[in-house]
Fold this protein.
Amino acid sequence: MRAFRVLTTIAILLLMTGVVKADGSGSWDLVNLNFNTDNRFMSGSAYGDKMVIAFGMEKDQQGSTAPVLKRSMNSGESLTAVSPVNYGGMLFLYTDMQMLSEDVGIAVGMEVGMSASGYTAGPIWKISSKGGVVDQQVAVMGEFPVCERVYCININKCWVSCEKGLMLRTDNFNDPDSSKVIWHKSNLPVTDLNSPGPVFFLNDQVGFVAMGASNTENESTTVLTKGTIFKTTNGGQNWTAISEGRKETYSAMWWLDDQNGFIGSTNGWEYYLLRTTDGGANWNGVNVESKGNLAHVGAIQFLNQNVGWIVASYGTVQQTDQNAAYFYRTEDGGNNWTTFTPMNDTGSPLAGQIWDMVMINEHLGYGFGEFQSIVKFSDGTDPVEDGDTDPVDGDSVVDGDGTEPDGDVDTGPVYDGMPGEPCPVMDDASTWDIPRCNIEHGSDLCLWKDDVDPYCTSFCEVDNDCKKFGPDACCKPVSFEGKSAADSGKRVCFLTNTFCADYSGMWKGYNGALPGEACKTDGFEDNPQRDENYGGEFCIDEQRGGDTFVSSFCTTDEDCASGFQTEYCCNGEYGEQKYCRYSNNCDPDWDPSIDGDFSLDGDVAEDGDVPDITDGDDGGSDQEGSSGCSGVAGSSAMLFALSMLAIVRRRRD
């Protein structure tokens, strides 16, 4: 019961400012556990086979409990805290979230302040940068309602349920300019509903929302009235009650079509799983398995008309840490269910209930629960939809997007790692699906030594530079890349008490652009600097319509094997010397003289490219050669010589 959870969590916060087995195909594996009373994940989402984000509560060493938002880029095995942008409220609560792509998601909830109403800001946030950045997106000015549930059918079209019978909807959630995102309001026929429930849409016109109203008269009595389910057939502009007057509030809902649906409901003390076959006019109980009192229905999700999942917890509504959770799968539209039982390493049911669940596809899913547990479902099948086993490549075509194959060039992992998260090893392609450290998140260095796995951190000067990463972080001088601490001059942030106490040994690390990657030079100021330790000798712009890239002089192809590139060659020519090229530049059939590029291509027809000072013409739309040079050979040779002179001047000693 999300309303119960929200009120309970607020009260607590204001007072206190592994192995998993299954009974069928596939298993739910425990990938994260932070065992401490009051630790929990209340809502979560995921995208693809790596990116996971979860919101919950966490108790610190002083015994205070506070909200925490964490994300993982390795399927939940390691988690890093994310700091949302806020309006200065005392705490924030995300009661529901949904990842809409690998980079974009939505969260709803509230930011709690000290005003008379207690709510100062909200109710919608935009998640970006693979869960690393969360910005507030104000939907209602002035007195903000509490909005608890969200459902999106694509990256732009979303609906949100709020208190007081308010519904919000947008058609442009992912507009790059957040000020242009328009949230339309509509009011339900019953407006005194203070328990916003789940939302579900079959398409952009037909949808449902389940709302409730509760009034706690004393500590032992909760009166539930006006539990109502509404339907819209015009995209949420107008709503009609299809089931009302029920003494229930609602936790989860899913519809197979406009006649058949499932819903999780509660009377305040016990939960029920209900099903309708007549469009919501009548609801009948579904007993998937008799295991005592049903304490919570965390989520319902169908992958198609036949295959679906439910996560349910048994015990009491009040003692969530003592409840037992089970996952149920149907393959015939909900008529029969198979039980999947999470177990701890002693052979007993995994303690604590599962609050939320998301299924990526029939092969992969995640559950979020008590003690900040994350359980992962896998049936042993590659969860990447297009069967592409290549690592994350950072180009414009996303692996696993359903294309078979995607045909793009593997350029290594993308920049998106946060402090404390693992980072890829350059000579180990099996780690290349781990994101690179991203300086925009404050982690500009991948650090490791022989007995310590690589992780993202940052250079620093004093301890205070590192405190933004956590209260235990420290700044220490290190022996780095073959130099003693005194000679290296390097100081780095360590994030745990263990490393702060013992940071001895020879450390290694890389940051910035590596061989074959875009690098910073004149005209390309937004690119990262060339890495001093592993970044080759210079940054080159060949004037071939592409970006700059890090390179080195070479004699054989093997001299170019470094960084994250899989295609490299020693065929760049500068006088009698050769230098390394990468990916498409190595293709002997690649013709740089193609219309539409961003630089001189040397053809005789109008090329229509972007104006470039190297064209020598009046804007790139006239015939090439108008600069007075006799053809491409002389012109490009001059440009190449000038670029190489610049390279030589930038070479490190």
Q: What stands out?
A: Residues 447 and 509 are 4 Å apart (CA to CA). The two ends are 65 Å apart (CA to CA). The chain has three domains: 2-378, 415-510, 538-650. Residues 2-378 form a domain with the Methylamine Dehydrogenase; Chain H fold (CATH 2.130.10.10).
